[in-house]
# Entry
Amino acid sequence: MARFHRIPAFAALLALALIALPALPAAAANIIINNVDAPGVGFNDPTPVAPIGGNTGVTLGEQRLIAFQFAADIWGGTLDSDVDIVVQATFQPLNCTPTSGTLGSAGTIQIFSDFPGAPLAGHWYHSALANKLAGFDLTPGPPDPGLLQPPFNDDIVAFFNGAVNNDPNCLGGANWYYGLDNNPGADIDFLNVLTHELGHGLGFANFISEDTGAGPLGLPDVYSSFTHDNTQGLNWNVMTDAQRQLSAVNTGNVVWDGANVTTKAPEFLGPRPVLTIHSPASIAGNYEAQTAAFGAPLTTAGVTGDVVLVDDGTGTPSDGCEPIANAAQVAGNIALIDRGTCAFTIKVANAEAAGAVAAIVANNVAGGPAPMGGTDPNITISSVGITLAAGNAIKGELPGVNATMKLDASLLAGGDDNGRVRLYAPAVVALGSSISHFDTVATPNLLMEPFINADLAAATSTDLTPYLLEDEGWMLLDSDGDGFPNIEDACVDSDLSPTVVIDGCNSHAANVLVDQGCSVSDLVGACGDSASNHGQFVACTAQLTFSLWRDHTISLRDKVRILICAAFADIP
Amino acid sequence: MPHSRVSISQLALGVAAGCALLLAPAVLRAEQPADGAGPGAEQTAQVVAQAPAAAPTAQTTQPANVQGLKAFVDEEGRLRPPTEAEQLQVTRGELAALGAAVRQQAPVKSADGTLSLVLDTSYLQSAVAHVGEDGKIVWDCVEHTADAPVQSVAREEK
# Structure
């Protein structure tokens, strides 16, 4: 019986002929953990713990290993490779303070260029990807004997901080959450962190130093070949070092130029928040905006009003950190506030208290819009962040600026105007963050943004990351060869027999593929799985075949043939 | 297993504490800015950890790709607790020490034309967490590069 995930809406079924499907061999990438921790520590820590969040481990070490393997299996179940991927893993007591600390580090151990099967000559590839493209292990041999020790046969190294363990001197007593359900509460979700870091090791990173623009031995890398600067009109792999330096801080104008990510982006990104200025004409147009993590969600209809700069009468009067002094002017209008001094929530709460219908926070540094993080359930108005430049443009025309804050459904939140997904390019280079992540303006949040957000759930989705890896040369695993990668396939092990066979009865009805990678046989099988008696099975099959016939997925004759076989089947 | 079971943090602090008192005066002389140091200037003694056969030396600047363990002294040469940023720099030193072997690796060109290079730990992506104003922990992804300033709270809410 095929493994069945869920039954699609029959009304939306689309028929695809099975005979058109390629019969491709598929192999889940086998990710092997090379535990280099000493006995009694790290992954071998014998401290008893209670199972949590689906993690059945009963010692700390077991739980760490189970969670690690779970994350490895997420990627293994996503990517197709005939070559094992060895991840060297360790829990080390890395440095930590009550308020900050390193959680972990990961990356490829070795890089390769000009190997057999390399799609691009003179470009570096991550070890695991190079092996996959070559079709064999470029550094064969047993796992490395220790942490970053020769002969460097392993592909990825991953450090994690064992000091994060309910110690008040480390991140205020936070602990790793080793559950497999992305439900960490106040703790740190090991699964999200690990899945993110493994993504880097598999290919989501360049090897360019963004502050110099140079790559190792002067060579670019495969990631850079898809990194495009809209201003320069060039991809990073053909730029000079100086051009890359310039591009690294070209906020909002560096995008991923890969077809798979661009095609899938509308499935993962929502409509883009914009600030549309209607008047005066001198500054009219759309401006980039960032939605807030608090307050009323922005809508496509949006909020329209005159813009009024707040004055709180204290310090920097436009920062809105104290009660608004010019409330009479602000009431009924959109409050404009400058970033700085206090939390975004305080600014917006003060604006709301003054009667503002919405609020705009202008950044106080060059680059992207003010990020608008924070939590305050008492705030009910909408607010957005805008750039320093946009804020200055508005201030230069006050009073008399009329604007709408809204979601533009024709544009992607996190994409450029051509639908390509933006990469993180802050105005000041953040080594390791710049370029090797998706931009923080992406909404909903993506796994590979530089700041991992609480709404991510790597256990159920790695969003656009697999498609970026696919652009680089990875193949997405399609276990049953039905043309639907496992991450999109509702039936990952489809019954792809040419005809529908029920309990040995060949109906001779065409076993066509319908929506989301499920065949007719899969759906009939699901009826059998869910039925508690034969009558229920037949009734379910009758309803199924009726829907398929009504939607012109199967013929009336095939409908009857399937039902006859169902009626005579010994199911359940 | 081949790697040390000694806590690297403890190692860092221990080595640093032992060496810093010896090195601090020299370092103070070497690193004293010509203008007498600006506000908040802090003195640093660096103990180079990657060459165990050599005597520890103080450096006025930190060369590229050389990372080490650090102790922190005040303006009078006394040990003082490191700032949070400095502690994160120590983490980078820890990783560099753990990955000392990879820094010895030269690029290799195989007969079939394959070029390979073992990367040092400066290429690792790191997740750095901090406790936000609301008490919740947030984290961001940075790179371990010794010369780079530690990224401060990148997701501040101001």
Summary: Residues 31-203 of chain A form one domain. Chain A has a mean pLDDT of 91. Chain A is about 20% helix and 20% strand.
